[in-house]
Amino acid sequence: MNISTHVVAGGVGRLSVAGEIDMDTVGELDATMSEVMTRSDVTKLVVDFAEVTFCDSSGIAALDRAYAAAAERGIGFQLVNLQPIVRRALEITGVLEGLTRSDD
To answer: What digits encode the pLDDT tens for the residues 28-40?
Structure first.
């Protein structure tokens, strides 16, 4: 898994994630999302999954934790550009709508 981060205009922290998210890689995703959300200039976290080919339950749990942490900090959270297999997993687990909703 590869993750790149940057903050764009308006305080939007953007993570671009590529590869597979599973028990072996979820720690890096967790840590990176947490690090970006703790920056004082970030008002929203956008996680781009355009290049994520697989996401298991540990990845879904990490996204759910990040969503809750963002809400607790008063910042937005949005998961974007889902591949069909990842979208379906999130839909089945009931978290798709909350994680992909835009608060803009």
So the answer is: 999 999 999 999 8
Q: What are phi and psi of 42, to 5 degrees?
A: -95, 125
d(CA 33, CA 12) in angstroms, rounded, equals 12
Domain 2-100 has CATH 3.40.50.360: no
Closest to 66 measured CA to CA, from 76, 51, 53, 56? 76
d(CA 98, CA 7): 22
- Residue 1 and residue 19 in contact, taking contact as beta carbons nearer than 8 Å: yes
Instruction: Tell me the per-residue pLDDT of 86-100, one tens digit each, with 9 for 90 and over.
Output: 999 999 999 999 999
HSE on the CB side for 12, CA within 13 Å? 15
Beta strands in 43-90 (DSSP E): 44-55, 76-80
